[in-house]
Amino acid sequence: MKATSLITMLASLASVMAESTFTPIKPPSQPLAVRSPYLSTWQAAGSGGGNDGYLTGQWTTFWNDRILGWQGLIRVDGTAYNWMGAMGDSPTAATQTSYEYTATRSIYTMTVDEAVELTITFLSPITPDDWKRQSLVFSYLNVSIVSIDGKPHDVQLYADISAEWISGDDSSIAEWEYGKTVDDVVYHQIYRQTQEAWSEISDQTEFGYWYWASTSQNGHSYQNGEDVVVRGQFIDNGVLANTQDTHYRAINDDWPVFAHAFDLGAVTDTPVSRLWSIGLCQDEPIQFTEVSGVIPQTSYYLNYFDNQLEALSFFQNDYATALELSTALDDQLQADSVNANGQSYATLTTLGLRQAFGALQFTGTIDSPLIWLKEISSDGNMNTVDVIFPAHPAYIYTNATILKYLLEPLFINQQSGLYPNSYAMHDVGSHYPNATGYPDGNDEAMPLEESGNMLAMALIYYAVSKNVTFLESYYDLLAQWTEYLIEDSLVPANQASTDDFEGALANQTNLAIKGIVGIKAQSIIANLTGRSADAQNYSDIAESYVPQWINFANDTTANPPHFELNYNNVSTWSILYNTFPDKAMSLGIVPQSVYDEQSKFYATVLHDFGLALDTRHNWSKSDWEIWGAATSNSDTRQAIIDAVAAYAADTSEWLPFGDLYETLTGDYVPGDHFANRPVQGGLLAVLVANMGITV
Ligand SMILES: *[C@@H]1O[C@H](CO)[C@@H](O)[C@H](O)[C@H]1NC(C)=O
Ligand SMILES: *[C@@H]1O[C@H](CO)[C@@H](O)[C@H](O)[C@H]1NC(C)=O
Ligand SMILES: *[C@@H]1O[C@H](CO)[C@@H](O)[C@H](O)[C@H]1NC(C)=O
Ligand SMILES: *[C@@H]1O[C@H](CO)[C@@H](O)[C@H](O)[C@H]1NC(C)=O
Ligand SMILES: *[C@@H]1O[C@H](CO)[C@@H](O)[C@H](O)[C@H]1NC(C)=O
Ligand SMILES: *[C@@H]1O[C@H](CO)[C@@H](O)[C@H](O)[C@H]1NC(C)=O
Ligand SMILES: *[C@@H]1O[C@H](CO)[C@@H](O)[C@H](O)[C@H]1NC(C)=O
Ligand SMILES: *[C@@H]1O[C@H](CO)[C@@H](O)[C@H](O)[C@H]1NC(C)=O
Ligand SMILES: *[C@@H]1O[C@H](CO)[C@@H](O)[C@H](O)[C@H]1NC(C)=O
Ligand SMILES: *[C@@H]1O[C@H](CO)[C@@H](O)[C@H](O)[C@H]1NC(C)=O
């Protein structure tokens, strides 16, 4: 290659690769359309497998890294540019200048030829108090364009999706329709020809109807068909053919894509924008085993809409309100987080809230809703108690009624006698979306863990809602689980905790205190429901366990002293995160001296990227670290938060923000790429500790 052409090439490369800013950080993966276990589309960013935070040059993916084709193009004065996606023979990429995220939005800014600027907003609304909106499994893409050189430019805008969104198997046969609603919403409806109800392949859903919609207005055109044909049509002509390819076929057979384009005419310094909606409608997304059998559960949004198109149409026309509600939540979360522990804390809570809400699905009637949660990535369990538990600060901070209806399926199943064990069940179904329970009691056994979790969460829901009726209706179950805790919490049997990747261990200090806090919770529940004698008895038992627990677990010889991982095992330790419910509700069962001792100790073993979970490994869990921070004094709290935020910012991980990682390097634990788990809702624990909740 001649030197001159090398220089030209480097110069043009440099203009394309001009650096983007990232605010507040470049997260491991950038959330694009994240509303439910199945609408979960991201742009991998971390250096280990991502694209360094740029929207072009790499396909967007499902949370597990499977490609979901999403292509954006723009023509400016007759020349096409790429602003999203990685189509072959891709036109020149627009120059990304900034990326910013909030809890509900990812916003990219790009320029084309120093002539126009694009502001590309992905809004996945979070509306905790408005379940009509929260239950819609849709997300927005808003692209706004403005001239930045003082001259008008002739602009056409384009975006398509591939059929990869509708199945985890690219050989599945796709079918599709194009249509228009009475209020001018234009849509491609795309679905598996053979609907496999309640099935998954590689975590993607195999039934229901996907919609890729926009609003019909001057200059709109559409087309579906082979990727190179449809994209080539736009690149060459700036307008689509308004035709359908009705040769329904496999997703990977000449890759059908579904496109909308707009001719915006001359764009000046007044911004012009277009809006797309992407989403999934499943009328009966969940199956739930009740006494009468396996009952399909109806989507909650169907309380408000007669059919899918009405829901779609509402969503497409609701952008202004959805943006207003989401922005209000974003601003509140940002302000509360900064006020608590600075920007590094806000960096974490904004990512955490997204994942806590991106795992949910709402069904049922307005009077009797149910909320479902997928564990995600570690396995597909439904409403896993020890996943709801770490996540629950996100729901307590936003709307505690969400926690109630997440727990409800677990209570209903066990109250109905569909679970034989005396302790609390682990989850309500081994694979989402089948909440078929465990009539044989053969769920993953975490007896102390889940019994303690259910009691602590029942009480915190009460503490925020003051709903005694709820406690009364499940009192017998709560009492039954308390009996287990009275038996097992002071000297815990050899069993797994939620951190099951560590294996089982007897006498775990952190499990023991969870159980003791659970007994104390039950004493308050007994009091609230008018059972004075029981209240006194439970309280006496819990109080009597505490000094014994300290005696078994306090490593008095260590300098500084600290609590051991398991009893009488000197020089071991773990994060004592299960004291958090005591702290959050000011129960007063855990002595302040325990908090003081642990706070001082944590500060001595903190690594650059966090506080190890325990002495068995140097890996940790971001959710439990922040729980630990929430139970620590202010200096230690800030130090832990800063370290976890450094992990989020500096990790090479590229899947949606992982909770399990190495605290020395900030990288994945080999072989365990936890991703997109709702447990990151636990990052809001400090906000909950600051709420001043009392029982
Ligand atoms: C939570 O959401 C529900 C359902 O929209 C609503 O009735 C309730 O007022 C909200 N707020 C709280 C604090 O529960
Ligand atoms: C859920 O149950 C149905 C049978 O009712 C089955 O066909 C489907 O494969 C199950 N889904 C998963 C994810 O296991
Ligand atoms: C896109 O977002 C901008 C900025 O919030 C807004 O002004 C505009 O109305 C939105 N466009 C559409 C088509 O909704
Ligand atoms: C309190 O809980 C009961 C039982 O679950 C429920 O029927 C009622 O709607 C709840 N009240 C409020 C205000 O949430
Ligand atoms: C558990 O701790 C108790 C109290 O120190 C002790 O008696 C018992 O031997 C321990 N069990 C095991 C399996 O280590
Ligand atoms: C609950 O506790 C309060 C004070 O802690 C006490 O006054 C009240 O009598 C108790 N109620 C019951 C039913 O035990
Ligand atoms: C206290 O509770 C324990 C465990 O349920 C029970 O064995 C004991 O009889 C109770 N004592 C009183 C006084 O109720
Ligand atoms: C643990 O032991 C140390 C050393 O004896 C003591 O100073 C500390 O108070 C003990 N911790 C608690 C919570 O009692
Ligand atoms: C002490 O903890 C270590 C893990 O840190 C474990 O390997 C060892 O078996 C434990 N010892 C006892 C006596 O429990
Ligand atoms: C954790 O890292 C430290 C270095 O900071 C090392 O000394 C220790 O052995 C590591 N622990 C484990 C369990 O690998």
UniProtKB/TrEMBL annotation:
Protein name: Glutaminase A
Domain of life: Eukaryota
Keyword Signal found: yes
Coiled-coil residue windows: none
Source organism (scientific name): Talaromyces atroroseus
InterPro entries for this protein: Glutaminase_GtaA, GtaA_central, GtaA_N
Signal sequence region: 1-18
The keyword RNA-binding is assigned to this record: no
Pfam families for the chain: DUF5127 (PF17168), GtaA_6_Hairpin (PF16335)
Glutaminase A N-terminal domain boundaries: 104-336
Keywords of the record: Signal
Taxonomic path: Eukaryota, Fungi, Dikarya, Ascomycota, Pezizomycotina
Domain named Glutaminase A central: residues: 342-686
